[in-house]
Amino acid sequence: MDREPTRRADVCVVGAGPAGALVASRLASDGYDVVVLEAGPRFDFSDRQERMEESIRPAHRGSVWEMGGQRDAFSASGERYYPLNVSRVKGVGGSTLHWQGMVMRLHPSDFEGSHGNGDPAWPIGYEDLRPYYAEAEKAMGVAGDADNPFAPPREEPYPMAGFPPSYSDSLFAEACESLGITMHGVPNARNSESYDGRGPCVGYGTCQPVCPSGAKYDASVHIEDAEEAGATVLDRVPVQRLETDGEGRVTAAVYATPDGTERRQEAREFVLAAGGVEIPRLLLLSRSEDHPDGLANSSGAVGRYFMDHLFAGAGGTLDERTRQNHVGFITSECHQFYDDPGRAVERVGDGETVVPASDEPFSPIKLEFLNYAGPSPVELALSADDWGDELLGDLREAYGNSIAMGGLVGQPPRRENRVTLDTSTTDDHGNPVPDIQWSWGPRAKRTMARTNDIQHAVLSELGVDISWTAGPESGGSGPAYHHMGTTRMGTDPEESVVNPQLRTYDVANLSIASSSVFITAGSMNPTLTIAALALKCADHVDERL
C-alpha cells in the first residue's frame, strides 16, 4: 500500500473502530468518496486462532493485538491511576476486536437527567436515537430476548434469538427469586445463528481478547462493506494534526506513513471516530494561531468531563459445581436497580429487609451474573506441586466451584476529570502523549458500596462463602475502559464541543462520532449507543454534503 492521499474525497474519517466503520459504510454506500485513516494495522482474520492460542498460553504477557511501546505511551497523573492500555486496540476494527460484545440501549432516564442525582440532561432524547438503535442492532447483528421488564421501549424483536442462560445463572435464579430480584437475558452482538454471512458462536470462550470464529461482531465487518462500496481505507497512518483555513473549516488531516513521511488528506467533511482519549488529544495537538487552545475548544471543554464505568463485584465458592469458565460472555443480568438504585431488597417469604431502601443520590446500577469466576485449570496446574494422577485429583477438587457477580456503576461528569497532553513524554512521532487525570468522586463510591451490598445479599442467599469484594475500599475495583464525555454534546457552545447534530461548534465541517460526546455515562455498555450516534452523524454529514 502506497498510503497516498486520495485526490478527491468528500469525507475523511479518522478511526476504523465501530463508529468510523459505520460512518464510512453508510456514506460510501450513499455514493460519497470516503477515506478512512487508521493509526493501527489491519489484522489478518486468519491469524485469529493463533492469537487466541497465544492469549491462553501460560507464558503470555501483554496484548495479543500489539498494543504497547512508544506508539501507545500515555501518562496518568490523576488521583487514581488509569491503566489506559489494558483494554484498547489500535487497528482496523478498534476495540471491538477484543470487546465482550454486550449491547444495551441507554434508558430514557439517562437522556432526561431524571435519576434524581443532579446529572444534566442530554440535548437529544431517547426517541431521537430509537430508530438508530434499531438500525445499529441490525447492522451489528444482535441476539437478544424480550424478557427484560426494565428495558426501554423498542419497535421490533432483536435480529436473532438470545443465548440461553448459563448453568450458573440457574443457580442464581432461586436466590434472586427469594429476594424479589429479577434476572433477564443480555443482548449480545454475537451470532446465536448464522447472520450476515457469519456463522454462529461455537463456544471458544475466549471472547476477550479474541473471537477466532468471527461470530462476535467487530468493526472490520463494516470497513469491508465500506471498501466494497468504494471507500479507501489506509492503515498505520496516525493523524498528527488537523489543518484549518481562516474561515473556520478543516482543510486537511495530516497523517504519518510507516516510514515517517507526512501526507495531507483533503476532504469536504471530516469525522473524528478515534475514541474518547485520542479524539481530544488530536484536537489539542491541532492548536494553531486561529485555535490557540486546540481545535474546537473555544468552550475549554475538550478533554474535560472524562467518564468511565466502575466495576463493582463480589464472589467466592459454593459447595457444588458451578461450571464457571465454560461460557466466555455474560448471559444474564439485572437492570432492576438502574432507574431505582436506592430500592430495598427484601426476602419475599417473610419480608425481612436485606438491603434497606435509601433516598441518597446514586448512579444507575447494572448487575451482572458472571460466567468466568475463579482460576482456570491451567492456572491451578501451574501453581501446583503435584504431578500426574495426584495433580488431576487436586484439579478436580479445586476447580469449578467458584461463583461471582459483577456490576457497572456510572461516574458522574466531573470537570476535573480530563484528558490533556503530557509535554514531558512523546510518542514515536514526537507528539505529547495523552495524560489521564481521573478520580472517582463520592457518588460513584457510594453507588459501588450499594452495589456490593446487593451482591452480598444475593450471594449469601445462595450460600456462597464470600472470599472477595471489589468495591470502593478494595484494590480490585477499576474502570470498565469505556471512555466517555471528553467532547461533550450540548446546546450551549460555551459549555460544549458539539451540537445535537454531532458537528463541532467552532469548525463548520468537523463532526465527532464517539462516546466522547456523551453527557452522562449511565451504566450500560456504550457501544450500541456509539453505533447509533455514528449512524445519526452520518445522516447529518449527508445532509450537509
Automatic annotation (TrEMBL):
<dbReference type="GO" id="GO:0050660">
    <property type="term" value="F:flavin adenine dinucleotide binding"/>
</dbReference>
<keyword id="KW-0560">Oxidoreductase</keyword>
<dbReference type="InterPro" id="IPR051473">
    <property type="entry name" value="P2Ox-like"/>
</dbReference>
<dbReference type="InterPro" id="IPR007867">
    <property type="entry name" value="GMC_OxRtase_C"/>
</dbReference>
<keyword id="KW-0285">Flavoprotein</keyword>
<dbReference type="Pfam" id="PF13450">
    <property type="entry name" value="NAD_binding_8"/>
</dbReference>
<dbReference type="InterPro" id="IPR000172">
    <property type="entry name" value="GMC_OxRdtase_N"/>
</dbReference>
<dbReference type="Pfam" id="PF05199">
    <property type="entry name" value="GMC_oxred_C"/>
</dbReference>
<feature type="domain" description="Glucose-methanol-choline oxidoreductase N-terminal">
    <location>
        <begin position="88"/>
        <end position="310"/>
    </location>
</feature>
<dbReference type="GO" id="GO:0016614">
    <property type="term" value="F:oxidoreductase activity, acting on CH-OH group of donors"/>
</dbReference>
<protein>
    <submittedName>
        <fullName>GMC family oxidoreductase</fullName>
    </submittedName>
</protein>
<comment type="similarity">
    <text>Belongs to the GMC oxidoreductase family.</text>
</comment>
<dbReference type="Pfam" id="PF00732">
    <property type="entry name" value="GMC_oxred_N"/>
</dbReference>
<feature type="domain" description="Glucose-methanol-choline oxidoreductase C-terminal">
    <location>
        <begin position="413"/>
        <end position="534"/>
    </location>
</feature>
<keyword id="KW-0274">FAD</keyword>
<dbReference type="InterPro" id="IPR036188">
    <property type="entry name" value="FAD/NAD-bd_sf"/>
</dbReference>
